[in-house]
Amino acid sequence: MKRIAEFTETATRFLALLAPAADLLLRLWVANVFFKSGLTKIRSWDSTLHLFSGECDWCYQVPLLPPVFAAYLGTGAELILPVLLALGLGGRLAAAALFVFNIVALISLPEVRPVDLMNHQLWGLMLLFPILYGPGKISVDHFIRRRHIKTGAL
Question: What is the pLDDT of residues 81-102, one digit of tens each?
Fold first, then answer.
């Protein structure tokens, strides 16, 4: 029994050492998805405006917002929020904003294929981790918190 307990303790300590890197990789992976989407939109702005116009069968059907405003807002969110998430700067807030953005994007699609639904669910699940647990030790948020704790500012 003692050997099992020792092995479990060693394995737990080892996995705890990997956790910050896993937090970072998760943030980078999901940030990359949204950032690439934003880059695609600015590369072909006319197509993006058409995509948000709602004038075609496969266009976004964004509720409540004028199409041009929705295009700017969506593209801006996809370019700014992933950078904040990747850096872990305002990590929880950036993840929460992307979580909401992900839901809005999903409900704005006129037709949701099973693979699209699965991807959006995966991204939403991945975003829940930094929302609930913070961006982790390899983040600007953690650096700022540690620096302020050392100086007694927090």
Answer: 999 999 999 999 999 999 999 9
* Start-to-end C-alpha separation, the chain: 44
Query: Cα–Cα distance between 3 and 31 in angstroms, integer?
Result: 41
C-alpha span between 41 and 47 (Å, rounded): 8
In this structure, the number of other CB atoms found within 10 A of the CB of residue 109 comes to 15
Vertex 51, ends 49 and 56: CA angle to 5°?
125
- Tokens 């950036």, located at residue: 94
Nearest to 104 by CA among 77, 83, 85: 77
